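From the shared-data thread, chain only:
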Amino acid sequence: MKRTTARAFPPPVSGVFPHLAVKAGHFPRRTETGIGALMPWANRLWFVTYVAHKKGSGDGTGLFFLDDAMRLTKHKASVVGTYANRMIHAESNQLFIGPHAIDTQGRVRTIAPLVDVRLTATCRHLTDPAGKVYMVGMEGEFAEVDVRTLAVRLLADLTKELAMGGKCRPHFKDGYTAHGRVVVANNSYYAGDFLRGHSDGRLAEWDGKAWRVLERTQFNTVAGRLAGDLGDAIFAVGQDRASALFKVFLPATGWVTYRLPKATHTQDHAWTTEWPRIREIESERWMLNASGLFYELPSMTYANRVWGLRPVCTHLRIVGDYCCWNGMLVLAGDQTTPIGDSNAYVGQPQANLWFGKSDDLWQWGKPTGWGGPWWDAAVAAGVPSDPYLMNGFEHKCLHVCHDADRPVRVTVEIDFRGDGRFFPAAALDVPARGAATHVFPDGFSAHWVRLVADAACTATAQFVYT
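Structure, as tokens:
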């Protein structure tokens, strides 16, 4: 009997197998080949790549799968495009990823009318969840797809529905359905927007009748669990000048805003925030990636509050998506991006996967960051700021400045139980039109911290965690 031997592959280097790299061609132009979505399905790990623009770039990219022997295959139905959407439709037992629907046997159908749409989200339908799904495109296309026939019907142009203006540059990134609403995120944010303090970025929701804008700043991802005892909150992540933003919806509270540190400013642009995500990585254990920080994120919201959010590490990696597959944590990447040769020192577009365990992330950069509740903000006397994360960082200080013609006392209040109850912990007496700094004792921490000023003013308050 002839013995077969396993195919030899190059050994991994720091969790990366060189033979799994995906590359885009040199012609007609060099842009990028980021891996936008991952999904374990039909005994394989499926993924789709994204190019920078709809046409004229990215030859060689598309739909791929990895088998248990770590063999990479480009599927024959693969098409070139910009795709980062993925969702399992339970009623029809299909994976929707890119413009494809894949059944449990691995058979692929392609949604032809959506091939040239830069798809970034698939989410459940409000009125026909068994028969249809919604699709969100980067340019603001909002459509429904019949899960059986794959017929497509365009429902809305979100740039018009959300009053983004005729000269806007849309960059819709995600969508999610729960609690009778579809929530979408657009992360438009460009250089001039920093000075203005606002942008065409949007967080918005739709009840099937009317769209409502929730935030007019950059938002990147929306996620949650569909239902159950482990929590059914909607989580949305974005950012403004002051900090990263973490919004939570529960029926009992509506939308509540929390704030998180930034560990990097390399993601403070619509094009460079690819892609903050919230994912379940181990059984019923979630992880959040935002502004250069990975966090543990409990899906539970006891007493209608988020608690136990904890930073794991800082990093500069572009992580298009992540999941667990065959007992490993897999991170998608986007490693070499010429973008039309705008950088003459970057060559052929390439991306790869990283394989490891969730515990490996604790060996990456130690959690650090900066941010706070105010940045040239109109502060009302006696009104508390948004809660800002304090848990999980080693050394902490606070800087405050304001423009009032009188001294302002800023009280630091902490929620050390995580249940939304705040207690005074310190105070800063900030001189007129001046600044003050408070250094917290080593080891001082709480789940959340907020600030209260005793006079109206325009103020900036930033925490620095090292």
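The chain has two domains: 18-363, 369-465.
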